[in-house]
């Protein structure tokens, strides 16, 4: 039954992504002008004249002189064979540009997710069980500060302190000597040394909100009759809480997995820019600003696919976790 | 890689120290000397041209080794690489931006009317892979690319005169004549600008494999390369374009540059770009030591300009002004200079004005057009601005009241063009407006058009890039109320700004004014020649560029200037050419089509205090791609 459900969901992705590709294409085309407008503007800014003949050459080269539906069809038919086209701005094949970025983005998302859970889960449980205790208030206060501080500001402050007071090299995910080096144990260790800063910065607000959700959900469960029953049967308090109410309260943890991936690509753009993270967000933002249609389109499509896959994952986990969920 | 680098540089340093007495004779980097000794590289005499160009460093003879650290902006900052490498064109700017000298070419001769240029190349000069650089490389560009309609459906304008693209004739292996259909007096200057390097950008022996005239199997290569549809696309992907990031993404492409890119080069995924010395570089110092002195360029990538400022104050940048040149950063740099071990670069702004107001002389509304075309009205609007107040409030006191045109230090400085009507005199302004026939006012004190509607200027500026323009306009709005003129300003997104301007739908536009140090290269504020920047008369520009078939016929004064400009482009005699430009500036001063606010203040940058031969003050411009013309290949780190 669950396999049929998964299969059905996967099959539905095809028309869904097709629709997304149309919307993505239209959205990228929506602002006035096209890539060449921004390119000419950029040249004009540096006092360079772009003569009409060259503009026309570029327009033809990029296919921007053709009607929208032709451009769309060309793009989609190439996508079918896995060719994302040529980035206008970088003049390089889009697939060369996106995969590396997506890899690091995934790595960062996973690390942030683990961090968020590792911190939010115990604190959430604690502050629910010890409601209105000193620890609860402390966690709550820190949580609200975490929620209220914009990520990029936190990033800037930490960077400033790092540079000015500790002479640390901040920003980016690698030290200079490892930036271009092939993967090795030393490089992984270097990554780990740099990863904590973005993970903390990106994870704080999510952690804070998960603590609140965990606490609220668990509080709901703790007063239910089944908890009393279990307690009456003599189960130890720790196992009692872990086994039943926590399992039910875990629901929000699992159901947010689906958003984590797209959120880190799109939501954390400003932070990624501030911290010079070589993730997908900043590149996508620039592609959108420059109206670099194929590059931006590739990102939007990947993001949508990731969302769909993430949602599927969290649905499957939910089914496994919560017997009340049905899939019909 | 870094460990290797460290090891070899330590080794190199040791060798350098011990071998120093012999160095004067050896004249090459220790690492290269080792490679020669190991038989991996031909000896220096075989790598250098028979007569290498001898260049002189700013201070002294240098020593080899070390790396130079810079930072690139996250997206598409490829021109930052171009600037430090310097476009190695046939000619280059003198370090003081006063004229051009031979560069890749050893010398040249010009025929009488200035339509043919014969370049003498250096015998024995090599590409960075050791293959000879000859007249055939230039011939390859002219015959197989420039004059190939598949590659350039229309040739770039800088190589086209009188509708005909440049032609080439090979005299011998080291001599080539470039021919134009009509005189082209500015050609040698043009060749020194950053985007005119194409004749010597592409090595024939390497790039011909992507050209169907030399390789029958190009189509197969096209088919197997992702995202590539035809051979020109493949060619550009592999051999690079003059102004695109992919120029720095293929380490296999031979170059004439002092440093060549390694590894992945520069692409959207790069977090660092590393360049190593070109063992075949063709310049030496006065003692015959091969340049560059510095082994490695290491360029980090940061997305955010504030992060770049942080890197600068932390002392992680050795020479840079790009992306951190905002005068507002000066106090931050001054505060951290000692700790970061750097000095502040004084970059002489090539711009004329921080902000120029382009009244639309070709306005679609006849009443507005009549108003704007009345010179007394423009004088009144200029007199109605208190520039000192704007400079104090918006520009932190940096600048002085100024209109447009060459800066006071420039040989073409025209006092009238720069300083006329910059004093604040609202009374005189009111008199002028009354006399011009706009004395009627409405209840709120604003002047009226003859038909009774209020005179309102709607101004557009790109607020995201230049918030200072918005601040200034707010102050001007208040000041113009005194003379009964209403101003509404709005910040617009840049592509909207451009599309409105190109559609001629503006009352006035605001932009920075180039032409302070480069008046002949960026004359777009005194001549209607730039279709995306001569906002005071876009239809005039169209008229000029289309040879009179489109757009709108300009005023007599502008037509006279455009004719002068045409003769300037053909004039090979430098002095006569400058005189022609003096006439253009005088005509523009008398007409005063646009007005400015403040002389553009100098920009700032950082330079490591230990870096020798690097200038502390230099011009900053795109046409003079700073710091390239100051020859970074002569910079060095003193042995400590």
Features:
heterodimer, A: 328 residues, mainly alpha, 17 helices, 0% strand, B: 640 residues, alpha+beta, five-stranded mixed sheet, four-stranded mixed sheet, 23 strands, disordered N terminus
Would you kindly provide a written description of the structure presented here, covering whatever features stand out?
The complex is a heterodimer of chains A (about 325) and B (about 650). By secondary structure, chain A is an all-alpha fold. Chain A has helices at about 1-30, 35-45, 50-60, 70-80, 95-130, 135-150, 150-165, 175-180, 185-220, 225-230, 235-245, 245-250, 250-255, 255-265, 270-275, 280-290, 295-320. The longest helix of chain A is centred in the middle third of the chain and has 38 residues, at about 185-220. Chain B is an alpha+beta fold and about 650 residues long. Chain B is globular. In chain B, helix 14 (about 375-385) packs antiparallel against helix 17 (about 425-435) and helix 21 (about 555-570) runs antiparallel to helix 22. Chain B is about 30% helix and about 15% strand. In chain B, the strands form 7 sheets. Chain B has a 5-stranded mixed beta sheet, with helices on both faces.
Provide a quick synopsis of the model.
By secondary structure, chain A is an all-alpha fold. Chain A contains 17 helices and no strands.
Shape of chain B: globular
Cα distance spanning the termini of chain B: 24 Å
Lateral strand order in the biggest sheet of chain B: 19-18-20-17-21
| Mean pLDDT, all residues of chain A | 82
SSE layout:
The complex is a heterodimer of chains A (328) and B (640).
Chain A: H1 2-29, H2 35-45, H3 52-61, H4 68-80, H5 94-129, H6 134-148, H7 151-166, H8 176-179, H9 185-222, H10 225-232, H11 237-243, H12 245-249, H13 251-255, H14 257-267, H15 269-274, H16 280-289, H17 293-321
Chain B: H1 2-18, H2 20-26, H3 30-37, H4 44-47, E1 53-54, E2 67-73, H5 78-85, E3 91-93, E4 100-102, E5 105-110, E6 116-121, H6 135-146, E7 160-161, E8 164-165, E9 167-172, E10 175-179, H7 187-190, H8 204-207, H9 218-224, H10 231-239, E11 259-261, E12 272-277, E13 283-284, E14 296-302, H11 305-313, E15 319-320, H12 330-340, E16 342-349, E17 353-359, H13 366-373, H14 375-383, H15 387-394, H16 415-419, H17 426-435, E18 456-461, H18 467-481, E19 486-491, H19 494-502, E20 508-513, H20 538-545, H21 556-570, H22 574-591, E21 595-596, E22 603-608, E23 617-620
Parallel strand pairs in B: 1-13, 2-14, 16-23, 18-19, 18-20
Antiparallel strand pairs in B: 3-4, 5-6, 6-10, 7-8, 9-10, 11-12, 12-14, 15-22, 16-22, 17-20, 17-21
Helix pairs in contact in B: 14-17, 21-22
């Amino acid at each position: 039954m669950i396999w049929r459900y998964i299969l059905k969901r996967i099959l539905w992705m095809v028309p869904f992504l097709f629709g997304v590709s149309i919307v993505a294409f239209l959205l990228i085309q929506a602002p006035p002008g096209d890539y060449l407008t921004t390119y000419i503007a950029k040249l004009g800014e540096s006092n360079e004249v772009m003569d009409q003949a060259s503009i026309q050459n570029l327009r033809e080269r990029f296919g921007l002189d053709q009607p929208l539906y032709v451009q769309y069809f060309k793009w989609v038919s190439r996508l079918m064979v896995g060719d994302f086209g040529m980035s206008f701005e970088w003049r390089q094949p889009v697939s060369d540009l996106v995969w590396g970025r997506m890899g690091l983005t995934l790595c960062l998302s996973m690390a942030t997710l683990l961090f968020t859970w590792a911190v939010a889960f115990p604190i959430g449980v604690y502050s629910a069980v010890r409601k209105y205790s000193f620890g609860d208030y402390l966690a709550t206060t820190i949580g609200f500060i975490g929620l209220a501080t914009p990520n990029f500001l936190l990033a800037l402050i930490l960077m400033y302190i790092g540079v000015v007071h500790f002479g640390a090299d901040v920003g980016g995910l690698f030290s200079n000597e490892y930036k271009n080096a092939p993967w090795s144990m030393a490089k992984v260790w270097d990554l780990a040394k740099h990863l904590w800063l973005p993970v903390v910065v990106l994870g704080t607000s999510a952690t804070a909100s998960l603590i609140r959700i965990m606490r609220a959900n668990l509080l709901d469960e703790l007063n239910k009759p089944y908890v009393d029953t279990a307690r009456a049967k003599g189960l130890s308090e720790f196992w009692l809480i872990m086994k039943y109410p926590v399992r039910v309260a875990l629901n929000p943890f699992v159901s947010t997995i689906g958003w984590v991936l797209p959120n880190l690509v799109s939501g954390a753009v400003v932070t990624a820019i501030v911290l010079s993270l070589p993730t997908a967000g900043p590149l996508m933002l620039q592609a959108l600003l420059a109206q670099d249609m194929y590059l931006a389109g590739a990102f939007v499509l990947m993001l949508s696919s990731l969302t769909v896959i993430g949602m599927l994952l969290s649905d499957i986990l939910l089914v496994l976790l919560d017997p009340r969920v049905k899939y019909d | 890689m870094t460990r290797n680098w460290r090891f070899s540089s330590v080794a190199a340093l040791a060798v350098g120290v011990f071998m120093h007495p012999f160095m004067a004779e050896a004249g090459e980097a220790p690492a290269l000397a080792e490679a020669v000794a190991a038989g991996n590289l031909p000896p220096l005499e075989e790598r250098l041209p028979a007569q290498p160009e001898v260049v002189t460093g700013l201070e002294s003879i240098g020593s080899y080794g070390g790396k130079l650290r810079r930072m690139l902006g996250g997206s598409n900052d490829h021109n930052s690489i171009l600037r430090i490498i310097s476009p190695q064109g046939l000619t280059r700017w003198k370090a003081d931006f006063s004229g051009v000298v031979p560069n890749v070419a050893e010398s040249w001769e010009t025929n009488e009317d200035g339509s043919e240029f014969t370049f003498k190349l250096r015998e024995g000069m090599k590409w960075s892979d050791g293959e000879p650089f000859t007249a055939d490389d230039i011939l390859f560009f002219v015959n197989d690319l420039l004059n190939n309609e598949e590659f350039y459906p229309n040739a770039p304008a800088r190589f086209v005169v009188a509708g005909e693209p440049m032609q080439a004739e090979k005299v011998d292996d080291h001599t080539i004549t470039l021919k134009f259909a009509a005189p082209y007096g500015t050609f040698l200057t043009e060749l020194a600008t950053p985007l005119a390097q194409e004749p010597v950008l592409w090595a024939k022996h390497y790039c011909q494999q992507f050209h169907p005239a030399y390789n029958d199997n190009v189509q197969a290569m096209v088919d197997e390369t992702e995202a590539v549809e035809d051979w020109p696309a493949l060619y550009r992907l592999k051999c690079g374009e003059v102004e695109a990031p992919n120029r720095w993404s293929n380490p296999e492409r031979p170059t004439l540059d002092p440093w060549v890119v390694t590894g992945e080069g520069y692409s959207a995924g790069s977090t660092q770009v590393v360049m190593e010395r070109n063992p075949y570089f063709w310049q030496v110092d006065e003692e015959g030591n091969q340049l560059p002195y510095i082994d490695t360029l290491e360029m980090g990538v940061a997305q955010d300009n504030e992060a770049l400022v942080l890197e600068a104050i932390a002392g992680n940048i050795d020479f840079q002004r790009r992306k951190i040149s905002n005068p507002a950063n000066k106090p931050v740099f001054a505060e951290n200079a000692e700790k970061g071990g750097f000095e502040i670069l004084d970059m002489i702004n090539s711009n004329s004005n921080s902000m120029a107001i382009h009244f639309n002389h070709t306005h679609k509304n006849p009443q507005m057009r009549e108003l704007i075309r009345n010179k007394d009205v423009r004088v009144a609007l200029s007199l109605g601005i208190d520039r000192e107040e704007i400079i104090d409030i918006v520009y932190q006191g940096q600048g002085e009241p100024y209109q447009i045109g060459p800066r006071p230090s420039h040989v073409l400085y025209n006092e009238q063009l720069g300083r006329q009507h910059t004093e604040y005199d609202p009374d005189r302004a009111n008199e002028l407006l009354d006399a011009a026939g706009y004395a009627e006012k409405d209840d709120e004190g604003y002047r009226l058009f003859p038909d009774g509607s209020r005179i309102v200027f709607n101004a557009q500026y790109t607020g995201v890039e230049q918030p200072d323009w918005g601040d200034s306009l707010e102050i001007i709005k208040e000041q113009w109320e005194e003379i009964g003129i209403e101003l509404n300003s709005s910040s617009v997104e840049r592509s909207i700004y451009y599309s409105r301007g190109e559609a001629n739908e503006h009352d006035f536009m605001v932009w920075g004014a180039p032409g302070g140090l480069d008046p002949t290269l960026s004359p777009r504020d005194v001549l209607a020649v730039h279709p995306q920047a001569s906002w005071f008369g876009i239809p005039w520009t169209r008229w000029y560029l289309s040879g009179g078939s489109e757009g709108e016929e300009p005023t007599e004064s502008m037509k006279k200037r455009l004719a002068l400009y045409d003769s300037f482009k053909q004039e090979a005699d430098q002095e006569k050419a400058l005189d022609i430009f003096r006439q253009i500036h005088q005509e523009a001063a008398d007409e005063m089509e646009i007005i400015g606010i403040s002389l553009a203040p100098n920009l700032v940058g950082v330079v490591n205090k230990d870096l020798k031969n690097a200038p502390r003050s230099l011009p900053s411009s795109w046409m003079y791609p700073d710091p390239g013309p100051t020859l970074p290949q002569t910079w060095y780190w003193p042995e400590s």
